[in-house]
Every structure is written in structure tokens, then in C-alpha cells.
Amino acid sequence: KDNDGVALGQGGEYFLALLYIKNLGPMTSKANVSDQWYDALQRWHLELFLIPTCLLTLATLLANPVLLACILLSHSLRQETRYLLLANTLAADVLFVSLNLVSVVCNALEVAVLRVLCELVTAGTVAAYCCAVLTVTLKVVDTYVAVRWPLRYHDLLPPARTRKILAAVWLLAAMYPLSLVIVMEAMEGATPDKSNVCLVLISVGNMGGEMTVGLHMYLTVGAFVCTALILFCYFRLYWVTKTQGIWQNRYSRARVTLLAHGVLLLLYFGPGLVFTVELVLYQHRTVSQDVRVWINTVNMCVMVLLPRACAPYLYGLWYRDISQTLLAMLRRHRSRRKNFLFLVSSRV
């Protein structure tokens, strides 16, 4: 009996050791991957990609808040569904580029980030990206509804209903990333508190097999639904309006608007498809680490920022109401400044 008790005790200790190694193994691998990733960044001097990252982020942060203020401060613009959707896209882009800049700067300068903070930044980045993509898709649906049912448009999409839809979009975009943060926090209880590299790819690439499959399904279903909606709406728009003669002129406003929308949609969806390829390459260890680092760096430092930097100039200022409101605000500000300077000079 004593021998059985000793054997049972050894068996229990062996089981606990296996369980500990099973939980700790992926996390230790994650720490090793972070160190190897940073070595590759330094070896190829990829910290130089911080320059285009800062320039594109600056272009976004200079234009988006101005357009947001123009929309939110104007009562007439706040009553339009398309401008509310545009404002939501601009807000999501500001959040995305800010979190992305923090991540890129910390990785380039080897700033150790707390694990919980890194996971929250990852979740915020994914949620902001998904929210922007969903809102851009809703803008296409909004255009289709406005053209297809012009007399019922304001009844179908009033501002109050649009705000509820936008709240649901933010909830849908943030629900899955936040749930992943909770799961990863439960799994990584024994890991170091800080990490040298904070990347979305490393955070989600080292999850378990079932979680990785769930992430692929989440991205695939979302991309399929958004793409199907966009293609359907554009096809129906062309079919409804082709007899009205607006497509005959090569440089008509409708054709140019469609071209601008198509370019921005491609720029918004492209980085997500590249990220899906990155996940596949990350799971195949036969692919060179340098190749994965280069693809991820170009995607995170250039490709994801291009649509955010172009949107306020190619899309926001294309609306006449926004451009006129912005010019009126600038004229009022200039007149107030002149009046203030005149009062100061008269008192002196």
C-alpha cells in the first residue's frame, strides 16, 4: 500500500508537471519569438519605417479632428446619416493610428511593455480596424438605400437609428477582441509581465489551435459579408442608374466618386487580407523569420495607414456640404481674430 501511495503521489506530481509545461510552453515560445523578432528588426534596420509611420499618422491626425469638429459642430451635418457614418470612420481611424503609433514606436525603441497593456493595445487596434471597415461598408449600403428609395430614405435611416447602428458596430467590433484578451490573460498567468515586442500578429499567433481557427473564421466571415454587401450594392446601383446617363461622361461626378470609393475600399480591406496571409505564414515555421518580419513591418507601418491618411482628403472633402461648412468656419475664425486684433490695437 505504501508503494501504491508513493506511485500515486509521483503520478500526481508528473501530471501537474505536464500541465504546467503545457501551459507554459506556448508562452515561453512567445517570449522567444519576441526576442527573435526584435533581433530581425535591428538587423535589417527596420526602425527606419518609423519615418513613414509618423508622417502618415501626422497627416491623419491633422485632418481627421478638423473634419470631426466640422461635422459634430454643425447641426445640419449631424442630421445626415452619411456624415454620421463618415464621422464614425474618422473617429475609428484616429483611435487606430494612435494605438498603432504607440505600438510601432515601442517596438522600434525596444520599450518593454506590460503584458496586460500590450493585450489592451492589441484589442483596441483590432476593434478600431474592424469598426472602420464595418462603417465603410455601411456607407456603401447607405448610398444604395439613398439611391434606391430616395423618398423613404430619411424614414429608413433617421439620425437616431443611425446612432444606434453605430453603437452596435462598436460593440460588435470590440466584443471578440476583448474576449480574446480575457482568454489570453487567463492562459498567460505564468508569463513574464513585460514583452520587448508588442504586435497583434505575435499576440494572436501564439494562441491555441481552436482559438486560431476561431480567429480565422471571424476574419473570413467578416470579410465575406462585407465584400458581398459592397458588390451587391454597387452592382444594383449601376443597374438602377445606368439608364439615367450619369455614366456616359468619362469625368462625371458619379464616376469619379465611384473610383474614389473603390480605391479607398481596396486600401481599407487590403491590409486585412495581408494580415490573414501573415497568420498563415506565422503558423508555418518553415517560412523565414525575416520574410515574416518584413511583411508585417510594411503592412503595419505603411499599408494600414495609407487609407487613413487619404480618407479625409479623397473622401471627406469631396462632400460639398463639408467643404462649405469648413470654409465658413475658417472665415468666422478669421473674422473673430481680426476683430480681436482690432480691439487690442484700439485699446493700445
From TrEMBL:
Name of the protein described by the UniProt record: G-protein coupled receptors family 1 profile domain-containing protein
PROSITE patterns tied to this protein: G_PROTEIN_RECEP_F1_2 (PS50262)
Record field: transmembrane: 49-73, 85-114, 126-145, 165-184, 215-237, 258-281, 293-315
Top-level taxonomy: Eukaryota, Metazoa, Chordata, Craniata, Vertebrata
One term under GO cellular component: membrane
SUPFAM superfamilies documented for this protein: Family A G protein-coupled receptor-like
GO molecular function ontology, one term from the record: G protein-coupled receptor activity
Ranges where the G-protein coupled receptors family 1 profile domain occurs: 63-315
Entry keyword annotation includes Transmembrane: yes
Primary localisation category: membrane
Sorted UniProt keywords: Membrane, Transmembrane, Transmembrane helix
Compartments reported by the entry: Membrane
Pfam family of the protein (one): 7tm_1
Species this chain originates from: Esox lucius
